[in-house]
Each structure stands twice: as C-alpha cells, then as structure tokens.
Amino acid sequence: MLLSSLNPLAVAQGDDLPDAVRIDGHTLSRSDIVGGAGALARRIAGARCVAVLAEPTPATVVAIVGCLFAGVTVVPVPPDSGPAELAHILTDSGAQAWLGKAPEGSDLPVVPVRVNARDWHGHPEPHPSSTAFVLYTSGTTGAPKGVLLSRRAIAAGLDALARAWHWTGKDTLVHGLPLFHVHGLILGLLGPLRVGSRLVHTGKPTPAAYAEAGGSLYFGVPTVWSRIAEDEASARALSGARLLVSGSAPLPVPVFEKLTALTGLAPVERYGMSETMITLSTRADGERRPGWVGLPVEGVETRLVAEDGTLVPHDGESIGGLQVRGPMLFDGYLNRPDATAESWTEDGWFVTGDVAAIDDGGFHRIVGRASTDLIKSGGYRIGAGEVETSLLGHPGVKEVAVVGLPDDDLGQRIVAFVVGPDTDPDELIAHVASELSVHKRPREVRFVESLPRNAMGKVQKKLLG
Predict the structure, then answer these.
(1) Do residues 289 and 299 lie in contact, with contact meaning Cβ atoms separated by under 8 Å?
(2) End-to-end CA distance of the chain
(3) Which residues, other chains included, contact 282 with Cβ-Cβ below 8 Å and sequence gap of 6+?
(4) pLDDT tens by residue, 24-45
(5) The CATH number of the domain where 143 resides is what?
(6) End of a domain among 168, 195, 222?
(7) What is the C-alpha to C-alpha distance for residues 397 and 404, in angstroms, rounded to an integer?
(8) What is the pTM of this model?
(9) Is the Cα torsion angle 455, 457, 462, 465 positive or negative in sign?
(10) Considering only CA atoms, which of 285, 284, 281, 313 is closest in space to residue 298?
(11) Do 113 and 59 contact (CB within 8 A), yes or no?
(12) pLDDT above 50 for 132
C-alpha cells in the first residue's frame, strides 16, 4: 500500500507499482509519487495552508501527496472558479501560496511542483486530528463554506469503503471526476493510494474513455452513467468490471436498469456529503436496489427525525430528516462557528439537511434536500424524488427536476421541469397520477432544453422557478 494502514495518511515504501496512476497521458509509479512528494514536502515543511489548482495532472497528484507528507493543509481549488469565488476561497482559507500552476490574477506566491524531483527522507507523521483538507461547498445557500476534514476522518472513511466494496490492491479504479470534491479527490485519488490499487484518470468521463480503460472498479455521477447507458458499445465494454459505483446525486431508476441489462452489473449506489464523506452504501456482496443507497458503512449510525423532533419509524415509506454520526465526519466549517453549531444536535448527531426513508431492514432511500426536495402541498409532504422517478419511466422524459413553487391555495404546487421530446403535459401528469397517489401529480409541466447542473452533475433546483 502507498498509504500506511497504521498512520492514517502516511506513505509507506512498499513494493513499487510501475503504473500506480495514469493521468493526463502520463504514468506515475509509486516510486515517482513517493519521491516527488518527498521532495516537495521538504520544501514546504512548516507551511500552514496552501492552495492547489485541482486539474487532473501529475503535478496535482504530487502536490496533494506532498502536503500529506508534510502535514500541510490543502485547499483544492476548482480550475473554473470565477474571480469572486476564487477570492473568497483564498481569503477565507488563508492559503499562503499556490503549489504548481496558479490562475491568472492571483497575487499569492507560487511554489513549483517538480514531478521529476526525488527525495527519500522520512517525514514525521502528523497528528491524526490535524486538518488534511479544506473542501469548499458548492455555495448554493450563500458563500461557499470551508469543510475541515482531518487525516483520521479520511482514513476511517476510506477503510470503511474498502470493506464495503471489497476494494483491494488487485483493483484498477477508473474515473474522470474533478479532483476538488470528495468523490474525485478523496475517494478517487486517495482511495487507490491507500488500498494500493491502480488509478486511471480519464480526464473527461466520456463513455469511450471508460470503455477503453479496462478497469475493475468505476466511479461516475448519474450524468456519466446516463451517457454510458445510451452508448451500448461502451456500456457492454464495462461488463468485465467488478463494480460500477454511482454517487453525488440520485441515479435514475431507468439508468440503473439499463446499465444492469447492458453490463450485467447492478450499480452500487452510495450517499455522502463533503461534511460526512460516504456514510451509506450498497455492498459488493449485498443487495442493490434501484433508488436506494443501502446500509450504513462500518462505524456509522443514522436516524430519521420528524419536524416535531420525534423519531420516524423505519417502514420504508415514512420520511424524515436524516441525521448521522460516525468517525469520518468533518470537524466543522472554517471560520463559521455559527454554521457549525447549527449543523449538530445537542446529543451529537450531524443534521444532513436531507430527507430520507429507511425500511425495516435498514436500507436507506434519499428523498432529497429538505430545502428543495420536500414539497408541502395541500397538507401533504411529498418527496420530489419519487415524482421524478415516475416521470423518468415515461418515454417522453429524458431528464426531469421536480420542485415545489409557491401557490396561494396549496402552499406549494408541484412543478416538473422536463427535458425531452414534445409530449402532452396532461399525459405526463396522468402518468404520475396512475403510478403514485393523485396528490403527488405535477400541477404544471414545463419543457426546457437542459437542467442547470454544478460541476458534479447535481441539478441546481434553486435556479428553477
């Protein structure tokens, strides 16, 4: 393994792996990563916090690992950050320098990352509680907040996933996800380094790139899997894999079913946040149920809480606010003690802001965000997700987002934003009414060219209305 199982994120010198990481047309061995990161660690030792423009390049890999060696906190910055977002991230984090490439207009000093440099000296292992990363949220409810992730939390989260997915050094992980979020960075880069598996980063997560990579384990967001499912040849090329893992947003049931039919592999779905990493997942050797994200991973507890503070029964239908606790949770929001306090209950549970249902076997179904996906219409509490699932089963719907918009009579009316060929709106409304309770039918259908999404493919529902 490249990352020691004894020290949460310390690099161990094991047997070399000549193709440990393939990224941006380059191949890095374990020795390349260890030697390059070691040389960088010596140069930045004593720094407190640095920024990395998180492009999928060898320099980014070496920069991240070098900071872990040196115990320097990393702020991964999205390469497409606008001026206001960039200024906020740099000011809020207090980053002292850029490692490697810096964006235009930044006046922070730059420390070059020399991928070919080598230094084999050891480095003292930082304390497990020290902050490894400050990851910034998408900022959908205001300025992005800096999520503090410790070395201990990252180690616990990755080890739990390795057990849930039977992830070992024999695997080759393939993905083309951004390296500034939990999915692509923590799971997708540190994960293979920790378990000792190979990583192939495809740059862009295209169907053709995934098909050509020859991996055993694939990561993707629903948009990626939807495109692969539409490309039959590429989908069938993945049939030799061991696991297809989907996350960062709900995987539409029709996409789940089509992938299963084309690849012979039912996708693994999981749930997590920047603040929690991955807390729920279906298992490599367990049931995979479309629309459900499975069981708590090792060390995690969950509960559902109603608006009045009472616990919600685990009957698979009743929905409530999802709260979690476990060893992979974050340490708070940087410079935001108010937001940190609001996110935790007095008895130590993190309030995710998501609404979910749990069945009597412990399987979880995520309904969506309480702020956008829990619709209160005519005295009923309706999950947008189940309405979306029903609509996606209609041949006239390619993509859909369901929201609750203000209504003088109902409080909120259910509105469906649909991407697809021209279809009679009344036909879509009747379709939902025939599958779900009548009160869950959309009161209005609006056809759009596309749905607004962020870098991870999540629909930005606050932009619809």
Answers:
(1) no
(2) 49
(3) 268, 269, 270, 288, 289, 292, 293, 294, 295
(4) 999 999 999 999 999 999 999 9
(5) 3.40.50.12780
(6) 195
(7) 19
(8) 0.86
(9) positive
(10) 281
(11) yes
(12) yes
